[in-house]
Amino acid sequence: MTVKIRLARFGCKHRPFYRVVVADEKSRRDGKQIEVIGFYDPLQGKEDANRVSLKFDRVKYWLSVGAQPTDSVENMLFRAGLIPPKSMVVKGSKNGQQSTSQHVSPITGEILN
Length: 113
Hints:
Layout: E1 3-12, E2 15-24, E3 35-40, E4 52-54, H1 56-64, E5 68-69, H2 71-80, E6 88-92, E7 98-104, E8 111-112
Parallel strand pairs: 1-5
Antiparallel strand pairs: 1-2, 2-3, 3-4, 6-7, 7-8
Region (Disordered): 89-113
Subcellular location: Plastid, Chloroplast
GO cellular component, one term: ribosome
């Protein structure tokens, strides 16, 4: 059983509201969930404190036991400081020459090997 940390949509038409939930990978988006660990309200202002709320201890627990966050939740967790950023991969250069894939740090821009 693979466990995901993802968003479940609530609210009315054109007024979305999301809960950050831990659920089995095979369950539906708004279906059965294991635990609610926070919420996300996209209609609040970007700097509003009520835009995102997470239970940090429960998020850390689920990440420690192997739960995989979806891309949108991963961005939220990165902004909250709970996970490090993904490393970026450079595939080629602008002049058309293909080089070998290199991992680049998204913060410093240094090549990692």
